[in-house]
Amino acid sequence: MSELASLRVEQAGPLALLQDAGRFGVRRLGVTQGGPADPHAWAWANRLVGNPWGTATLEVTLGGLTLVAERDAWLALAGADLGATLDGEPLVPWRRFRLGAGQRLAFATPRSGLRAYLAVAGGFLAEPELGSLACVVREGLGGHRGEGRALSPGDTLAFRAAGQPSGPEEAPPAACPDYAAEPRLALIPGAQIAAFRGSSLFAAFHRPWRVDARADRMGVRLTGPKLECAIDSLVSEGIGLGAVQVPPDGQPIVLLNDRQTIGGYPRLGSLTPLACARLAQCQPGQRLWLRPQGREAAHNEFVRWRRGFE
């Protein structure tokens, strides 16, 4: 049987959270899903160390984290380039690497993207809360100690040590997004889209948007053309991942993993899960575009992506 091991947190950084696939089946209780803001990078990190779907990884936002290995381990890094180094030597994202006992893995600041995902062969260990390890700070659920908090100096991340993984050592170039490029995010039109003025709909899909500084795991505000809707407010209804709410100021808010479970603003529609993943890597001020996509096409695209990790 493999032995327990750990990584020690020497420096915590602004936000480093343990995330598995998410917490489902509990939204009727007012509990949101959590999970990785960028499931594409999260899934690739796990794949590169041979972990099955759903295994918990560490989501590192903005960098600033330093970890020290208590024993040898195989890890993988995917997602944003946060200037990671291994004992001072640069680490390239989207590949597997060995971390020896006593070595330091450090993250600096974002060079490209916002969130990096660190997976360890065998997976990080913690006690599930409502069936998941996903850390949601706002709700005080999940994470490395079950208290819904980010890592702090002196914390340890437990895992069950595993041998060298089989499978790919690095992700193919086609799987590695260019985070500096302007993304075109797929949006499935929603039930209230007909209530928006025609000129607003034209602007929504033909003019650029910028990511506002008011962005976190709960949602991302976009700034751009003012969207006008004949509906001021609605009876609150369930809110899914990627819902694009439009408050009275006409500037849309895209709701992400740690969103509230209900809301009453009219919705332009919903970003697809893969579009949400890409949005989660956009830095404040970055320009992007929205493009409409049908529900069936979006479903087929997601199924093809998901099958790639089976």
TrEMBL record:
Highest taxon listed in the record's lineage: Bacteria
Keyword ATP-binding listed: yes
Annotated Carboxyltransferase domain residues: 28-305
Keyword annotations: ATP-binding, Hydrolase, Nucleotide-binding
Listed name of the protein: Biotin-dependent carboxyltransferase family protein
Organism: Halomonas salifodinae
